[in-house]
Amino acid sequence: PHTIYLKDYQPPAYRIDKTELRVDIREQSARVSACLAFERQASACEQLFLHGENLELVSVAINDRTLANDQYQVDEKGLTLFNPPASFTLQTEVTVYPKQNTSLEGLYKSRSIYCTQCEAEGFRKITYFLDRPDVMSDFTTTIIADRASCPVLLSNGNKIDSGTLEDGRHFATWHDPFKKPAYLFALVAGDLASIQDEFVTQSGRKVALEIFVENKDLDKCDHAMTSLKNSMAWDEKVYGREYDLDIFMIVAVDDFNMGAMENKGLNIFNTSCVLAKPETTTDVGFQRVEGVVAHEYFHNWSGNRVTCRDWFQLSLKEGFTVYRDSCFSADMGSSTVKRVEDVSVLRAHQFAEDAGPMAHPIRPASFIEISNFYTITIYEKGAEVVRMLANLLGPDEFRKATDLYFERHDGQAVTTEEFVQAMADVSGRDLTQFKRWYDQAGTPRVKVTDHYHEASRQYSLTFSQSTPATPECSDKKPFHIPVAMGLLGSAGELALKLDGETLDDLPEDNTQKVLELTEPEQTFIFNDVPEHPVPSLLRGFSAPVKLSFAYSRQDLADLMQRDSDGFNRWEASQNLALAVLDDAIRAFRQGSLEGFTVDPLLIDSYRQLLGDEQLDQAMVALMLTLPSQDYIAEQYEEVDVEAIYSARRLLTKTIAAELVEALRARLTAYDNRKPYSAEADSIAARSLKNTALAYLMQDPSQSDLDYCLAQFNNANNMTDEVAALSALVYSESPLVSEHAEAALAAFYQKWQDEALVVNQWLSLQARDPRPNALLRVSALLQHPAYDGANPNKIRAVIGAFCMGNPINFHTGLLDDPSAGYRFLADQVIALDAKNPQIAARLITPLTRWRRYTPARARAMRAELERIKAAPELSGDSYEIVTKSL
Ligand code: B3K
Ligand code: ZN
Q: Atom 3, ligand 1: which residue's CA is nearest?
């Protein structure tokens, strides 16, 4: 495997103006005939290399003349043409084997459906091509298949022809009028049912909408359709972006490497991101469908109309599109809740990536395998960078800048430079320093100290920033960091007047400001400050940094109740919990948690929250939830798995015991007979009730247990059903255990024919923190419900165990402490030959070995070495393993 560098980028020697494909699908194989119109762009070209992998070449001709053996050469990476003319038509015929294609990239079969996945470099598994995003072509695609088994034949754009052929076969021809790179190509053939709807665009054009699924799932498409129409309307309203084809289609398939794919006019989705109905889908599932449908739809502009020049620019489309979908979800539900959810994920996982061996800037300078760079850094940190730009410019200028970007680059393949340039041109701001966010990896640390001078009534905040070394660079230059902030006085928020500002400079409500850090150290002085305030810093998480300030616990409790910024109220609750968790972690490390007392300030603060009738119930639920094990681990140089687990467990039990009455009051306040709705307030009410239930089931009374069992048996929605099930399964109370086993069995019995529900059942067990989980996980792999070729099942069992069950992953089995690591390596090695993308992704927890105690680190490392030594390891896994050793 070799490394590819951004600095080596060269424009393509040829354009491919037109692409005509004929894909003839048979049970055992498919024949792909391609007719490509090449135009030279460079001055001369002795050898033209076309990508092509796993293709059996049947014939190759230029301008209808079959090539002689000395005019071309084929190897496992592609086809080289010698001395091609300046302008020519290439005709190729190849055979591919969809049924045997277990990589789920290129043309493959998911259950009975033929489908494609081309991003990033899958088109080369369909035909010989210049498979790079800066080669954009006009595609016409004819699909031929059996009418009986494949009545539905789809590709990008508009259907321009169809008809019947001999022997029960039929065809359809599709033409996409928008030039596009090959990664946006798609085709589908299969026996699919669909729901149809229509959207009228702001300019009055009618767009047909169609969602295709297996017939059995037809009753689970409504939410995706509603989400699609909401997305279309939102993109018009917020970005002025209208849909451009006459039809927009979504197809759902079971076997899919990620969530979904934004192919032009023909999105292909993992069923997990389309199907939803209350009985089978949790609230989180409903929100995921809404978010992913929106994300893929938004790509039509941010990704398809304006695409990436090369794959180093991936965050150009992904960071921007994640930013767009997260604003959409915020608008559809609660913006504070959405922000908290996004930031939690970012801090638990992206910060860890940014501190590990795979750290990379949102625009990487090199890679071996691009599939490994569809990361939380490119996506979520990329979105944070766009968010900072949006906040620096403000809504009006940001909208002008995105308008300019779309208009200027419509139909082009561009870089992140062009995106930032549009922002700079509209705002007149110098964004030179800001662009370091694109080139430097690592999470900046921002340390803040304050000083209050009573005589002069001046208050100062001093910020110092530094960024730890990452593999690509050890000497980081300072970032441009926007810090949104306010000051809390004893009677409320204080007016903010920076030294040098006069009242005329300030808006009427001047209790919030954005301070822009650009230097390693900077001090801001506020005048006319009547008392020593409590600063509320980094409101709304205005930059992806680790900010620290020496708050007293009382300050945190105060911010938690009084900050006007909802996000920072939650943030204060997390910091207070982290401080108390740290007490317990220290006690554990010093010998024992026996007799440990939890700081009553935390309990009192939680009690107040439980009684707060004003606050959004979803926020109460989030604030009552202790930081995740991953986020707690993020706070320490060396991760002590047992200490973290035990401390968190003890706090959970203590909170449950201390607040039992207040928690029960939340159950009583909830009306279980309400019909299900996926609206934000319903979701919020359920989340608070189920958070309370999970606490109560730590040590339930008979009536708590009865409540939980009744909820499990009678729930009218999957959120409540699965919440009750996990409360039963994760309870350590002897009162509960036999009920838990029975409930697990009953749940499977009831839902065994619903693949997505079964996945929940699998992952709930894989995450079970009780000892010897690995034995149960190994048994699940033998269960008839498991399918080792289906990415959703792999994630539900292996992924959930290795990433969602840290105590068991790291402690292994009672007599075999590294069994978890060995299990993962075995699974990766077995999977690598079949589906390298999924295999490489699973390795992640092992790559973090440096963070663990020496014995664990050694054992994890040994498993990485073992993966590295596996015969014929894929480039995907090779890159992850070698970079982390
Ligand atoms: N663009 C696709 C991701 C493709 C991943 C390829 N390994 C989905 C998305 O981000 O919208
Ligand atoms: Zn995307």
A: 261
Residue 420 and residue 460 in one domain: no
Domain assignment of residue 536, given as a range: 453-466+480-541
| Ligand 1 neighbours (beta carbon < 6 A) | 119-120, 258, 260-262, 295-296, 299, 318, 371, 374
Residue 185 falls inside a structural domain: yes
Residue nearest to ligand 1 atom 1, measured at CA: 261
Tell me the C-alpha distance between 157 and 131, whole Å: 20
Q: Is residue 663 situated within a structural domain?
A: no
- At residue 42, the pLDDT reads 85
427, 489: one domain: no
| Distance of alpha carbon 693 from alpha carbon 705, whole angstroms | 9
**Which CATH number is 526's domain given?**
2.60.40.1840
Q: Out of 121, 210, 296, 369, pick the active-site residue.
A: 296
Question: What's the confidence (pLDDT) of residue 466?
Answer: 98
pLDDT of amino acid 288: 98
How far apart CA 310 and CA 118 sit, in angstroms, is 15
- Whether the Cβ atoms of residue 209 and residue 225 lie closer than 8 Å to each other: yes
- Whether residue 459 sits in one domain with residue 425: no
Nearest to 277 by CA among 213, 371, 334: 213
Query: Which of 117, 258, 288 has the most ligand 1 atoms within 8 A of CB, as the residue to mutate?
Result: 258
**pLDDT of 543:** 99
Instruction: Pick from 261, 298, 321, 371 the residue to mutate for probing ligand 1's pocket: most ligand atoms within 8 Å of its CB.
Output: 261
Same domain, 414 and 500: no
Q: Measuring CA to CA, how many Å separate 227 from each of 248, 294, 304?
A: 13, 7, 20
Structure confidence at residue 509 (pLDDT)? 85
Low-confidence ranges of the chain (pLDDT < 70): none
The predicted structure's pLDDT at residue 275 = 99
ipTM: 0.99
What's residue 672's pLDDT?
A: 85
Indicate the pTM of the whole model: 0.99
Mind listing the pLDDT tens digit for each residue in 592-649?
Answer: 999 999 999 999 999 999 999 999 999 999 999 999 999 999 999 999 999 999 999 9
Question: How do beta strands 136-146 and 113-117 pair?
Answer: unpaired
Write out the two tokens for 721.
């059903």
Distance (Å) from CA 318 to ligand 1 centroid: 8
- Ligand 1 atom with the smallest distance to the CA of 837 is 7
Q: Best of 115, 119, 322, 879 to mutate for ligand 1, by most ligand atoms within 8 A of CB?
A: 119
CATH number of the domain residue 81 falls in: 2.60.40.1730
Nearest residue (CA) to ligand 1, atom 6? 119
Tokens 């204080």 sit on residue? 494
Same domain as 459, residue 395: no
Q: Judge whether 296 counts as a catalytic residue.
A: yes
pLDDT at 504: 83
Phi, psi of 845, deg, nearest 5: -60, -30
